[in-house]
Specification:
Oligomer: single chain
Largest sheet: 5 strands, antiparallel
Mean pLDDT: 90
CATH topology of the largest domain: Jelly Rolls
Number of helices: 8
Number of strands: 12
CATH architecture of the largest domain: Sandwich
Length: 229
C-alpha cells in the first residue's frame, strides 16, 4: 500500500488541477472535491491497479507519470498510454461495471490523490460541468485513439519510433524523455534489441541525443519527417 504523503496538496492549491477534468470547478465544488479525496505518495514501479481487479475509485495525478498497459498472451506488456500531472486514471472503468481491462503502474515517484467510486459517481450525477467534461474527454479520446491505431498499424518500426518520440515529448514537455528501453519498446510495439539499434541510428542522424537512459529531442522536424506524420 502507498505511504501517506508528506506532500499533502489541497485541491485549491493543486497546479495540476488546471489540466484536469476538475479545472472548471467553482470554489464550492473544489472544497467538496478536497473533502472527498485522499492524497498518497507512490514509489517508482508501484501499481495503482491491475488488469482483472475490481475498480474501487479514480486516481488523480498531482505529480509524476503512470503507464497504462495490457499484457499479451505471452505476458509481454503493450503500453497504451502514459499519464502525467492533471490526468485522472481509471475513470472509464467506473461506468462499465466491469473489472479493469488494463493495468496502471508508476514510472517514477508520484503524488496521487484517490476518490472512491461512490464519491466520484455521485459527483458525476450532481455536477454538470464534470459530466460534460467526461463526455468531451471520451469523445476526443475515441477519435484520437482511432487515429493513433491507424498510424501505428501502417508504419514501419522506424516510423513508429519517431512518431512515439514526438508523442512522448508532449507528455514530458520540458523534461527529457525518461523511460527504460524496455518500456519504450513496449510503447512502440517492438523488440528491445530493435529499439536500441534504431535509437543509435537516430543519434547518428542527429535527431536525438541520449543521456544515460534519458532521450533529448534535437530535431522534432526531423522526427516528423521520418514518422511520415
Amino acid at each position: 500500500m502507498p505511504e501517506k504523503s508528506h506532500r499533502h496538496v489541497t485541491c485549491e492549491n493543486c497546479l495540476s488541477r488546471q489540466n484536469s477534468l476538475f479545472k472548471s470547478f467553482c470554489d464550492e465544488d473544489v472544497e467538496g472535491l478536497d473533502s472527498k479525496k485522499s492524497c498518497s505518495y507512490y514509489k517508482k514501479n508501484q501499481p495503482l491497479f491491475l488488469e482483472g481487479s475490481t475498480p474501487r475509485g479514480v486516481f488523480c495525478l498531482n505529480s509524476g507519470k503512470v503507464k497504462i498497459f495490457a499484457r499479451g498472451e505471452e505476458g509481454k506488456e503493450q503500453i497504451i498510454h502514459l499519464s502525467a500531472g492533471g490526468e485522472i486514471v481509471g475513470f472509464r472503468a467506473m461506468f462499465s461495471g466491469e473489472p479493469y481491462k488494463v493495468s496502471a503502474t508508476t514510472l517514477e515517484e508520484c503524488n496521487i490523490c484517490f476518490i472512491s467510486k461512490s464519491d466520484f459517481l455521485d459527483m458525476v450525477d450532481t455536477n454538470v460541468t464534470l459530466r460534460n467534461g467526461i463526455m468531451k474527454e471520451l469523445s476526443t479520446e475515441l477519435a484520437d485513439r482511432a487515429t493513433f491505431i491507424t498510424n501505428m498499424a501502417q508504419k514501419s518500426v522506424r516510423e513508429r519510433l519517431a512518431f512515439s518520440l514526438i508523442l512522448l515529448q508532449d507528455v514530458y514537455k520540458d523534461e527529457m524523455i525518461n523511460l527504460t528501453r524496455e518500456d519504450l519498446a513496449n510503447f512502440v510495439g517492438t523488440a528491445t534489441e530493435t529499439l536500441i539499434r534504431l535509437l543509435k541510428d537516430f543519434k547518428e542522424e542527429k535527431l536525438i541525443q541520449t543521456h544515460a537512459r534519458k532521450i533529448e529531442i534535437l530535431s522534432k522536424e526531423g522526427l516528423l519527417k521520418v514518422s511520415g506524420a
